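To close the chapter, one final illustration. This time we ask the reader to focus less on the individual chains and more on the assembly as a whole: which components sit near each other, and how the overall shape emerges from the parts.
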Amino acid sequence: MAEIQESGGGGGGKHSKKRAKKSSTRIDMTPMVDLAFLLLTFFILTSTFNKPKAMDLAFPAKPKPEDQIDKVKANGISILLGENGKVYWYPGALKPETVIEKTNFSNTGLRMIFTNGNSKIIKNMNVLRRDAQKWNYPQVFADSLFKLKSREIKSDKDALVVLIKADEKASYKNVIDVVDELNITDIGKFSIMDMTPEEKAKLDAVK
Amino acid sequence: MPKIKMPKSTPSLDMTPMVDLAFLLVTFFMLTASFRAAEPVVVDTPSSISEKMLPDNYMLISIDKDGKPFFSITNAAVRRKTLEEIGGKYGIKFTEDELKRFGVMTSFGVPVASLKAYINASESQRLAIPSPGIPMDSTDNQLDQWVLIAYKNYQYDLQAKKNDAEAKKEEFDKKKLDLKFAIKADAGAPYVKVKKVIDVFTNREIYQFNMITTMEEKR
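The assembled structure is written out below.
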């Protein structure tokens, strides 16, 4: 371990006169250093740097499914969430002959549906992201400009509209997972709403 | 060839810079560390790719895996005032000491009737008290009252801060001080229960939420 040399303190060249032997002014720092490192280790191990992350989510005021479905035409899809992470989807408005299709949370499931339906927006967003790296603005300004531009792109009339409908047995995790997929695939137009009785019947029928 | 001389004295190292650095780091970690008080409930949040930090001022509703809601708000002065008002509404008188203790408490999930006993319990005793969640039935919607009164008091507090800043001719950053609504629900919580809590907010015309998630790599 580190030891402090106890030999005489200070200069003392060849020509110096012989003086009365001084006692060393050095003190043994080892216990202090031990303590310092102990504290350091403690604080490093106990501190958690990851402040929780938050995901923005807006909920509709008073959900009126009829209004929504009128708006949802060719570029709208509905996601139905059932128990045990089961997920189904169908495009457009629900008609009696509509068949709901089973999918999953993998890259070939929901991700594929969203990327195919929203390809134009994803392309534009990627262009924006690439451009943004070349911007030479102050950070705050660049951030707000990016936000503004991405909002513009995401509200494009060709953007995919997604309606998320969870039944009473769906878990919160599934809802967040779908919203997360939407964020990954740059879908800004989505709404979380109640399931209609017709959809409930369809979901029960396939189970 | 000359012989290699072995040094006689013990090899010694100047440790001063290392010690300096060690203390610098100790100081840094001590100052940045904020000790987290024990939460009455364990919430295992789902993960998302969101990199947004939780804002500084928020009202937090934790929802455990059975769907029981817990309430908390960041500002201690607002908590005090809220408790005072809630006490008045439900006919329970809280003492000065209880108000003070409530100000520094973390989230809680007990009805108003048993809140007095909960506040007076020590931190370790509190963990033993069962938390049935804050009632939010249509007949006795206490959660709604908490949200409403805490929100109102927060706005008063904000206004007071603004007046104060204006009197001193200081800059007032309203955006930074704005109250956000955070929901920290367990991944396994049934969605209907979460929806019930959200409905409490939407009925009061609050539509924007921060859902607390753990970060996940974008696949």
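Chain B has a mean pLDDT of 84. The two ends of chain B are 66 Å apart (CA to CA). With these observations in hand, you are ready for the problems at the end of the chapter.
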